[in-house]
Amino acid sequence: GCAGGDFLKRFLFWLFSFLFCSILLSGCGKIQPESPMRQVVDDSGQSLSLPSHPSRIVSLTYGTDEILLGLVDTSRVTALSRYAGNPDISFVTEEEAEAVGRKVDMNAESIMALKPDLVIVSTAVSPQLVSLLRQSGIPVYVSLVAVSFDEMEEKVRGVARAVNEEAGGEAMVQDMENKKAKLEEKLSAIGPSDERCALGLSFRGILGKKGTLFSEVLAMAHVKDGAARYDVPKGTNAYLSMEILPEINPDVILMPVWKVKSGDDETAFVREIMENPAYRDVKAVKNGKLVPFPEKYKYVMSQHVTDAVEASARAVYPELFDKDSH
Questions:
Q1: Alpha-carbon span 315 to 262, nearest angstrom
Q2: What is the bridge-based pairing of β-strands 197-202 and 205-206?
Q3: What does each of the 326 residues of the chain score in pLDDT, given as a tens digit?
């Protein structure tokens, strides 16, 4: 009966191993903690403890809305900023905004009520709001307000780190680089002496002062930024006065379309400029080159910076792109 005993021992060993493994495996599902936390440093230098797979994300700025939706499925996003889905200022489509289904204002109570496991803001959001949310135990990732293409790549990588999608962030940066290179290839035909001068307007005055991202966007589009020669003290948001329009004498004026206040009327604004005797000799006015130009390009704050470069180039050098649309 030796062989039989041997068989029994082996059988029991196999049985116990099988049961032990099953118990282990079924236990894995139960014992595992919620979701291991990880440490991330945001763009303001603050170290945060974040869930490894944030899935109730709230974004409070239009730029972080756009980066976020390029990295994660809408099912992981609980709310977007109040501008999401407005085509004049946001690249988030109406469909995406509807899929998320909720927009939120800069209001601590209404944000807390959503029980987010990650809130993404930018340095433009009030520090009071950030510290209120942090005190209530909500992790807040502060993203930088980029003023150059390189900083925008940094901003993208940062948001990707916050949502734990670093490979997606790298792919997004690579995509930005590819688009930039492709545009540069097309625009390299425009030498410095062929560059036209453009001026970006808002309903409040002239945009694009030196050191702003829009100024860099125009430069990348091989367009001279009419406002870049004026130094405005750092930290002031002052628009330049319309009185300097004749002095700048732009070839193209990039007109506003996003109505911020009641009374903002793009058609009336165009008419006002066209009929103002002080602007009669301005090249853009003489040649009727007042181009409606959505604010999502002028105030771009996401991976779509390359779309802003292309839109600027199309507005100023339409002839370069005409042959594309056959």
A1: 27
A2: antiparallel
A3: 566 678 888 887 777 777 776 666 655 544 445 568 999 999 999 999 999 999 999 999 999 999 999 999 999 999 999 999 999 999 999 999 999 999 999 999 999 999 999 999 999 999 999 999 999 999 999 999 999 999 999 999 999 999 999 999 999 999 999 999 999 999 999 999 999 999 999 888 888 778 889 999 999 999 999 988 876 665 556 678 888 899 999 999 999 999 888 888 999 999 999 999 999 999 999 999 999 999 999 999 999 999 999 999 999 999 998 766 54
Q: What is the gyration radius of the CA atoms in the chain, in angstroms?
A: 27
For 25, the token pair is 């495996």
Letter for the amino acid at 59?
S
Structure tokens at 190: 């425009």
Q: Which residues pair with 225 in a beta bridge?
A: 198
